[in-house]
Amino acid sequence: MFPVVPERALLELARTEGGPDTLNLLVRDQDTRRLLLLRAVLDAAEAAGPSVCTAAQKARLREDWALLTEADRLPAADARFANPARARLFHPLTGPWARSCLRGLDAAPGPADGERARRLRRDLAHFSAIAAVVAAGAGIPFRTRLTARAGVLALPSLGALHTARSGDVPVDVTCTEGRLVLRQADAPDVTVHLESGVGAWSGALSWTPAHALPGLTRTAPPLPLDDLDPYRELPDGPGHGNLRTPLALDDAERKRWLQAWSGTALALRSGGAQRLAEAGALLRCLVPLETPPDVGTGRGSCSATRREAFGGLLSSTPPDAVTLAATLVHELQHAKLAALGDLVTLHRAGPAARYFAPWRTDPRPYDGLLQGTYSHLAMAAFYQRRALVGGLPDRDWAWAQHARYRAQVGAALPALVGSPDLTVRGRRFVDEMAATHERMAEHPAPRGHVARAQAYVASARSLWAQRHASALPPSNG
Known about the structure:
Number of domains: 4
Strand content: 5-15%
Helix content: 40-55%
Radius of gyration: 24 Å
Number of strands: 13
């Protein structure tokens, strides 16, 4: 069922690149896995006992699935996808929703049953909202009852209705001729008019439309800037630090996003044509985050990706186009390597955190070191390409960034290449990463930048060793 990754594609990805065929291979595989994940949700619901998923909930799931199936047969509204139903199901934030459903359906009974039941009830109700959006986009007339969550009915890709009452509120929805009528008790009806692509408008103050940025290129569709989806939050845990607060954009923040976005394609292209191509192939939505206080000013920002939300990128408001372009380059490497890891076993290293990474103060597991080194290698290449473009006003700054990223990669590569846990294909992958790093020496940064970068890495290694080396087995420290 899952494709074999050709050697050519493996080496392209090892160089942090990827031609159209290689990127399409990753995308098609991730889309297949999304459909299997959805099927797993439906199967888990059918198999669950009545105390977990009631007969009424199962019947509603079948009804929603039938609506999706009807829309699945209609012509595509979005040229990137086979049909409107899959365009919605492949939206990145559908993945976290499906994972949340599976956790609720599969969890063993215990003290948290009440909270789990409440969350699962909301999760399953969200599938009804997804089905309604798909049917509306496909032009299928229908009547249905949806449930607002904590006073908000989120209709993915369209917008959100703020109900007159708080809590979980029933909302009756009628769809005819490109418009929705939303009806709730003790409040006027709200009429919502669907727009082409992303968003829907209404004169009602209780309606907040979904927003999108213009296509990255002239032929690309608008890119959702999703600050409404209830599944956009990062999960708790150490993997994402303090990046857990999605941002609801006001007009000023939205304008700052648009201003940075308007120059992002040019900034990506200056770092290599493949950077613009991979963003066009892989990026499906942006999720705004609040900026943590420790990020600072200037060109500071924070960002993240989620393995279960392929194509989604979470970021604080970017200060400029170059910063946003660099964020895309960095985070899309994580998406590429995660997608490749679903198809190819690169290593069999355990989860023990014992490796030195110059960009972190804590020890890293092997897989974390590989992920970080891979994204830093791409950043070194991106800034080197920018530095080699004549006439850029920030050329010297680009050289400094390149030198720092390249020095960091050079400090991490020995542990990656020397690992006995690499598979045969994994060794080919990291060897090609090392060769890519070496080829960068053909266009070296100015000596002053190289010296400062090497001093930075040496200082980071020394501080790391003082904190951790005595408590860890030998690695690359």
